[in-house]
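Q: I have two molecules that I believe assemble together. Could you output structure tokens for the complex as a whole instead of separate predictions?
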Amino acid sequence: MLGGAAVHFALAASFFDEVSVVGPVGEDFDEHHLEAMRSRGVLVHDVERVAGGETFFWRGEYGWDLNSRKTLETRLGVFEGFQPKLSERSRGSEVLFLANIQPALQLQVREQLPDARFVALDSMNLWIDIARDELVEAIQSVDCLILNDAELRQLTGKPNLVSAAREILSWGPPTPPAPSVIGAEQNRAEGRRGPSVIVAKQGEYGAALVTNDGFFALPAYPLETVIDPTGAGDTFAGGFVGYIAAHAEEELSDELLRRAMAHGTALASFNVEQFGTERIERLTGEEISARVQELSEITRFIGAPLARLRG
Amino acid sequence: MLGGAAVHFALAASFFDEVSVVGPVGEDFDEHHLEAMRSRGVLVHDVERVAGGETFFWRGEYGWDLNSRKTLETRLGVFEGFQPKLSERSRGSEVLFLANIQPALQLQVREQLPDARFVALDSMNLWIDIARDELVEAIQSVDCLILNDAELRQLTGKPNLVSAAREILSWGPPTPPAPSVIGAEQNRAEGRRGPSVIVAKQGEYGAALVTNDGFFALPAYPLETVIDPTGAGDTFAGGFVGYIAAHAEEELSDELLRRAMAHGTALASFNVEQFGTERIERLTGEEISARVQELSEITRFIGAPLARLRG
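A: Yes, here they are, computed for all two components at once.
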């Protein structure tokens, strides 16, 4: 069924801002899949249909508790030999998300938007294994890295999540300014690069945010029935990056990033309620806001002073 | 070095209330270990020294990222054939924690405190494997079950945490009242038993709380250096149950349970900073309160309304 990182991301982000998707599909790609995106206002003019090509295909199997996933089949199809060429309209975007694919392709897209104000990147263990140098180069060209926590550990060789994130933050500017969209722009102007925002995806446990200013963690929204975790990470990224894009006039403070995390978490929780993109396609803004409110409620406690502390 | 569930629990709980430890030690047990507990006000008159016996001993190995643990050696020692006999003073306790051990032993202790107002129980996969019926009986005799999330799944056969917790809640009273200390007492008076509070320990991801009234989750406190996770779960339980004991006059509301979770989480985070009980032995109440405050800060976000929700 319809899936793929860019699709999940675009549908989620479409609740917050105008999204333009870049990527190839094959001759087999059904027109009504494009319609699913168009009907949420997603621009698909940079979706390249490759004559005679076959659309990327993935098939996998989840473990009993959905915490482990085994890939059964991956067919790169039209992604082999793909040369992204962005339209002028897409090149004018202020915010860019580089979904998981070969780091070389991510860099090719990144180079076509040198002036983007906020760039985020997702990746996976495969590229750490077989293309680490290119991946590090790609990461050093962005403002925000979104990765599974185990992959952050693998990438840095640091067993501790906070240490791993700090290691990647150190790949950035030597004296990092307070992370802000403005700051990121300045870094690039001064030839300084590298992420100032690290998001660790933790599957059913939620997600954590590490910046030079602090740490934030949010549990996943508790669901009694999870149908299909496929695309949850990209849907999270769509909510997270989309929220930031919609608030581009605000300083990129930890406070803004935390709200973005909450919206990403809410979007991801809807995604897993049904197969593929079924749930997000019929989602409403009211449902998102209500779930963000619920997330706020299930994480709130009052740090009341201790009446009887002994010692 | 000094360890064991009861020791970690007692030291943590000693910050909140008077704690009396019940359990056997061997002739090899060093007097200065008892002193470590005494100096935190822990009552050790129910620690039974078995002539010629050998103290329980555990040795294990942690994986690279400390998320997996392999037991290398367990010597039950004096726990084999142990018959707990509580002093009159201990039998008068209002709050009871049954640390992880054979469920039959937990039941023997439980039966000696029939009027306890709040009883919590911890266990592990071993007892689910080899003594499930006894374990279920023990769980049905308590108000609160504290278990690793994977063990909650194993115990119930339900792959989803929320479903697993709800399953165990359903082992309790048929029409569960709002969970309160008073309520629990009433349940027993009416012959209704079973937990109304489920705590899922999630290791480095924190802990979640499920009651009939709601759900709460709290991440672990982020540490850049974790030295020794041994006893973190029992230290958590000590902070959690200790906090409840210190507020026994309050209704056992979700709000109180959430504050207890925060204190358990704070205590556990100190425990892993050094080996064994080193850190907790020199911990202060001020440090605990400061960390609870920090936990409140790293989980807070503002559910601001969305200015630009599209759809």
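A: One point stands out. The two ends of chain A are 60 Å apart (CA to CA).
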